[in-house]
Amino acid sequence: MTNQKMLEVSAVIIIDSKNRVLLQKKDSDYPLGSNKWSLFGGGIEKDENAMDAVQREIKEEIGISFNKEKIKFLDEFIFKGELNGKFFRVNHSIFIIEFNKDISEIRIGEGVGFAFFEKEELTKLDLMLPTKKILERFLKR
Fold first, then answer.
1. Dihedral sign, CA of 61, 72, 124, 82?
2. If 0-12 CB within 10 Å is exposed, 13-18 middle and 19+ buried, where does residue 10 land?
3. 8, 35, 79, 96: which could join 44 in a potential S-S bond, CB 3.0 to 4.6 Å?
């Protein structure tokens, strides 16, 4: 494919003590999935590794810091797609965190909101496609 852009991202599946998944609702201006639900995470910057990126993204997006010992690498996932006539490939490093803090500690830094969802509810949500694929794989475990 010509004109293919490659992105490296870290994403995190955050699970609470009731085995629910925390997701972020993207705002209407988000170009890759406006008003859709997604995992928390984002691009890996050139001076970062995947773990550094996920720690930074969590802090930026929910205002909470997690020690590296609490963040477990889960899997890698490659998503290929097309947006506005440009092809892209996104290499996801997927992590998992057990959320044992109070929900009142969350300070949303991106998007329009967040919520915890039961695993059965996830299939009914309007999810960003990479999030949907990642969660389908995760739920099969």
1. positive
2. buried
3. 8
Ranges of each domain in the chain: 4-139
Output the CA torsion 92→113→57→31 (10° steps). Answer: 60
d(CA 89, CA 76): 13
Region 30-45: mean pLDDT is 89
Is domain 4-139 annotated with CATH 3.90.79.10?
A: yes
| 68-87 per-position pLDDT tens digit | 999 999 999 998 887 677 78
pTM over 0.85: yes
- DSSP letter at 120 equals H
Q: Are 22 and 99 in contact (CB under 8 A)?
A: yes
Convert the pLDDT of each residue in 103-138 to its tens digit.
999 999 988 999 999 999 998 999 998 999 999 988
* Cβ neighbours for 22, distance < 8 A, ≥ 6 positions apart: 14, 15, 16, 40, 62, 99, 114, 115, 116, 117
Closest alpha carbon to 21 in 98, 103, 118, 88? 118
